Prior knowledge:
The chain is an alpha/beta fold.
Amino acid sequence: MNQYPVFSLDAVLRKDLAFATKLFNIHDMEYFLWIKVDPTIAKIYTLYQLDEVDSTEKFDIDLKEICSHEPGRIWYKFNSIMLNRKPGQHIYRMHMVNKENETTISLYFSYIVQRSDTKKTYVYMKDKEDKEVKLH
């Protein structure tokens, strides 16, 4: 039986990102985030750059420090501590080059970080209490 990493995402084309985005609670994020690349792409393309898309803050991402990968394998192992963990959605672009003809493609992965300690903008049952007070 094959076992897959629990804390993982699929690398997809930008148009498919909405279907591949996952929600993670900040407290459940593991040390490594595993990114799965389609086997046909993983066999002939190599990751040469990673950047966060649509971010107001720019992070210098050193691939040697953040990612490990065995050539031809479908799983890329990222140190999640070095990825953006602020609440909200984070989209990353994987720049990949074909080892044979040097053509390039971009794949994307995305996740949403949620904190369990966020303040709610409402008070549960407050409307019901207000209505009861107004009736009396």
